[in-house]
Write a structure and sequence with these properties.
The chain has 94 residues and is mainly alpha-helical. It folds into two domains: 34 residues; 59 residues, no CATH class. It is built from five helices and no strands. Helix 3 packs antiparallel against helix 4. It is elongated and about 50 Å long.
Amino acid sequence: MFTICSSLITQVFEHETVSKSTTTRQLRDKVYGKKAVPFFPFADEAVAAYKAEGKISTHITHKATIHTLRDYVQSENLMFQDITPEFWLSMKDI
């Protein structure tokens, strides 16, 4: 039992050290191993649904926002878990 607790404490400490900002949910997910969920496939599907429903203005607005987000992160690997208040604040100057 002590070994498991020690291992979990080490993992949490490493996570806090790397990320500098940690929520209780992130700690729980780190300890229990929650699979990361990609954001862009979900967002692309939602935008396509707006277009299919004839909500063209919403489609255009959200598509532009997602495009800006892709440019900012310069990766397709943005996970829902990465989208934190600190992440949004880091984007305030774009």
